[in-house]
Amino acid sequence: GVTAGRRSRQRSAAAAAAAAAACRRQQRMQPFAGAAAAPAASTENAAALRVVEVDLGDRAYPIYIGQRLLDDGARLRQHIPGNRVLIVTNTTIEKLYLQKCTDALKAADPQLQIDSVVLPDGEEYKNMEVLGKVWDKALQCRLDRGTTFLALGGGVIGDMTGFAAAAYQRGVHFVQVPTTVMSQVDSSVGGKTGVNHPLGKNMIGAFYQPRCVLIDTTTLDSLPPRELASGVSEIVKYGLIRDAELFGWLEQNMGKILARDPEAIAHAVERSCINKAEVVAADEKEGGVRATLNLGHTFGHAIETATGYGTFLHGEAVSIGMVMAADMSVRLGWIDASILERTRALLQACQLPVTPPESMSVSAFKELMAVDKKVQAGKLRLVLLKGPLGGCVVTGDFDPAKLDETLEAFCTH
Predict the structure, then answer these.
(1) 142 annotated active-site
(2) N or C: which end of the chain has fewer CB within 10 A?
(3) What is the pLDDT of residue 371?
(4) Is 79 a catalytic residue?
(5) Sheet of 61-66, strand order
(6) For residues 203 and 194, is the Cβ–Cβ distance under 8 A?
(7) Per-residue model confidence as pLDDT tens digits over 242-281
(8) Does the annotation count 170 as an active-site position?
């Protein structure tokens, strides 16, 4: 099993232009003992600190993964260059973790000056108008270029804080403290920041890397079940596009994740961060392999935009999108139908939706997919599955009739 695991990882790395070799890790990745068994990492203490390095040369940064890391103000402080911090959070996380984060930083350095700004909670507030409140607060507090913006919250807060940091005085320091599965396994890593536009999701933004990502897995204890499941869809995505072993492990351990078993959560978060870090190290600005991380997102973003931001959680929309992408891949003859069925079954095991709402029409999908960020020279490019489990391509070279077939199969009108 271990030998096969190594071979699997070697194939994944080759497919990502040998990205694995570029990803320096401070802790050796544990091999799987096989999909049916618990991973070898399960012999470790769930509370043990795990560190994944995002290798971007002189902008490399660590991802810390562990329990109760929010109490470790000294670890955060070492990635804050100056003595001014602006914590950006939302109304939900403010009540849960703002005081804890502030107290930990103050305990580590009583001289640190900490301000905070609290935004409304929800995807529907991920826009330029609400983002302006961050800059308003920064200017009111006379924060200078040596300031650090700290994102305390889920994917919306992380994306908005990063964009605010990228633009404020043309760039201030930025650290991520993600508190949802979605942000811990995906959005906090890699420097994609931005806001939504009424005509398209995440259309206004910048690539801007944090100085560190601090993942306290105990924050997931306060996460509503629907938010937990939404984040798990992104873990499933890694399994589909590059980590077949992870997919098999998820099939065996999904119950543990939904029950918030600390070891299963820690393993799933770490494995996801390793995958994301490898891809980002190989292709920071999404010129190639990084686009594979958007599996299901073209269909999913269309659903989010059409139904109104916040109606579907991002991971719910991506879940539907991944099933649609797998369906289209089967129709193209690129994957075995069993991969589609396993994908649908695994997502349904998380209580995630696998079909678009009845309000979505074929024409709505086509219109919104035409403004996707992967469109090049007017041609739609999709992330589709190809070959054995764990293989995918980003391509505009497909039979458009097969896309029509998939849309017609999933839409009632």
Answers:
(1) no
(2) C
(3) 74
(4) no
(5) 50-54, 61-66, 213-216, 173-178, 148-153, 84-90, 113-119
(6) yes
(7) 999 999 999 999 999 999 999 999 999 999 999 999 999 9
(8) yes
- Token digits of residue 35: 């999909």
* DSSP β-ladder status, 113-119 and 50-54: unpaired
Which residue in 282, 293, 229, 235 sits closest to 260, CA to CA? 229
DSSP-derived 3-state class of residue 40: helix
To the query of whether residue 386 is one of the catalytic residues in this protein, the response is no
Q: How many CA atoms lie within 13 A of 176 on its CB side?
A: 35
Residue ranges in the chain modelled with pLDDT below 50:
1-44
Does residue 297 carry a catalytic annotation? yes
What would the two tokens of residue 107 be? 């305990």
- Give the integer Cα–Cα distance in Å for 297 and 291: 10
Catalytic entry in 227, 234, 263, 304: 234
Sign of CA dihedral 122, 125, 130, 134: positive
Catalytic site residue from 192, 331, 374, 381:
192
Does the annotation mark 304 as catalytic?
A: no
The CA distance from 51 to 66, in Å, is 9
